Amino acid sequence: MRGKTQEDRSLLELLDPVAEAAGYEIVRLRLMGGTQSRRLQVMAEDAHGEMNVDDCARLSRALSEVLDAADPISGDYLLEVSSPGIDRPLTRLKDFEAYEGLEARLELDRLADGRKRFKGELAGIEGDNVAINLEGEEETALVPFAWIIDAKLVLNDELMKRGAEQRQARLEHEQASSDADEE
């Protein structure tokens, strides 16, 4: 899920070590567009699940060096490095555990219970399965992670509140660090 096409997955093999060396993890990579103008979109975060503008610039420079040297993409393209955002894609098994209790949409590569799309509250993971509480269902559904082709958090009041709380905590931490540096 982190890479959709074989070309995306090849780029991930090249760029994952670069991102990790710089202190980041690639959440999702997509090479989009036709042959004329393409866009390489890289969503990443640090170990704390954060990615600010300075982080994006730092990772962009590191990735650009390797991309320029290896030249794995034919033609012109634009590199775009960003955070996953508040209604982020869920691409790694650990994402489903980290965002337990929040609402998400899942799309599968096959039918399960007569459908491919599910929406519900994430209930963590069990082995290689994603646990999700579906509306109107009494039992928690287990969906094999390998079947999921797309998953993302649903933008709602609960997610916005969590984002605001995280932003506030980050600002307080930065202020405390700044105050300590001045002393």
From TrEMBL:
Gene3D superfamilies: Ribosome maturation factor RimP, C-terminal domain (2.30.30.180), RimP-like superfamily, N-terminal (3.30.300.70). The keyword Cytoplasm applies. Residues 164-176 have a biased composition (Basic and acidic residues). SUPFAM superfamilies: YhbC-like, C-terminal domain, YhbC-like, N-terminal domain. Keywords: Cytoplasm, Ribosome biogenesis. Pfam families: DUF150_C, RimP_N. Its main location: cytoplasm. GO terms for cellular component: cytosol. Residues 90-155 form the Ribosome maturation factor RimP C-terminal domain. It comes from the Bacteria. Residues 164-183 are annotated as: Disordered. This is Ribosome maturation factor RimP. The gene is rimP.
